[in-house]
Amino acid sequence: MKHISVLLNETINALNIKEDGVYVDCTLGYAGHSSAILKRLKKGKLYAFDQDEEARKFSENKLSKIGSNFEIIPSNFVNLKSELEKRNITEVDGIMFDLGVSSPQLDDASRGFSFHLDSNLDMRMDKKNKLTAYDVVNDYPYEKLVQVIRNYGEEKYAKQISRNIEKVRKQKPISTTFDLVNVISDAVPFKYKRLGHPARRTFQAIRIEVNKELSILPKAINDAIDMLKVNGVIAVITFHSLEDRICKDIFRERSKEDELVKGLPVIPEDHLPEIKVLKKIKPTKEEIEDNKRSRSATLRVAIKQRRM
Ligand SMILES: C[S@@+](CC[C@H](N)C(=O)[O-])C[C@H]1O[C@@H](n2cnc3c(N)ncnc32)[C@H](O)[C@@H]1O
After folding, report:
1. Number of structural domains, the chain?
2. Domain containing 194 — which CATH number?
3. What percentage of residues in the chain have a pLDDT greater than 70?
């Protein structure tokens, strides 16, 4: 299984790992970041979430070669707080997200994530979920399709693509990724195809809809901040502007200065903003050359200053 972890050193450095600390990796994947965390822990513990069974199986084996002080939680990270509370964990030293899908998920034709590989229209990270890409493409009414493709894909031809989906599926269901690629290609102007793969934005949009990626993110990031100890760190790697904006807005909101003490030379501890936001980090040129997938990544980091 080949997945090159993005912004690995930058994330691990930002987490500033203490050997007896409690850390949470919300997106275990192929355990790139989790392995680096676990290697630095002696008495501490790592909790790692993934909703993908294959990723969990692979990583269980990989992490157990490093140590035993970890637990993999087979759940969506939106349940972060309740899953940790079940384990009597109410505060943690560090928490990270490396959002989106992994390379093995993209490269496995049977998962239906890639517009380069022909397969059934699936795109579920958690195969126990009911909604698939097939359902979105074949059952959503025109208006809802436009909304999904425009809002989650930022696709300017959302209407044209949705109209063509509606027309084609009246004849026969659109059942494979390549069927969908053809429907999209036929709907957009020729010149658009020179700007990159014409299906890229629509595939992103449908994947986000199937996995509810954006609607769960605010709760997950807010809960993660709630759970941090003072001086605890949250690190979030995003891969497109929509998820990045959600993270940026939450960080901004929770780092607002208290109006009462604004301008004072020294802010009393009990009036400090809840978190302090550090400068965002982008991959280096070298990383982008080695791993094209990293080119759209942004790492945002914040440190907890005060528990509310
Ligand atoms: C980009 S990969 C993480 C790669 C990992 N950091 C590494 O270096 O190997 C994202 C992983 O998070 C999982 N994932 C995405 N959204 C999730 C969610 N809401 N809940 C749980 N797991 C999620 C995916 O299944 C995928 O395995």
Report:
1. 2
2. 1.10.150.170
3. 100
pLDDT in tens, 236-245: 999 999 999 9
pLDDT of residue 188: 94
Distance of CA 286 to the CA centre of its chain: 23
pTM: 0.95
Judgement on whether residues 45 and 176 belong to the same structural domain of the protein: no
Distance separating alpha carbons of residues 230 and 213, to the nearest angstrom: 28
Q: Is the CB of 102 under 6 A from ligand 1?
A: yes
- Across residues 138-165, what is the average pLDDT? 98
Gap from CA of 103 to ligand 1 centroid (Å)? 10
Query: Which residues fall within 8 angstroms of residue 170, CB to CB, at 6 or more apart?
Result: none
Cβ(237) – ligand 1 distance below 6 Å: no
Q: What is the largest CA-CA distance in the chain?
A: 70
- In 3D space, the residue among 82, 61, 19, 81 whose CA is nearest the CA of residue 72 turns out to be 61
CB of 297 shorter than 6 A to ligand 1: no
CA distances from 307 to 34, 90, 177 (A): 26, 12, 47
Question: Is 238 near ligand 1, meaning CB less than 6 Å away?
Answer: no
Q: Give pLDDT tens digits for 52-64.
A: 999 999 999 999 9
Q: What integer pLDDT is reported at residue 219 of this predicted model? A: 98
Q: Which atom of ligand 1 is nearest to the CA of 239?
A: 1
pLDDT value of position 304? 97
98 CB less than 6 Å from ligand 1?
yes
- Domain finish residue from 211, 240, 261: 211
Boundaries of domain holding 161: 108-211
Shared domain for 222 and 203, answered yes or no, is no
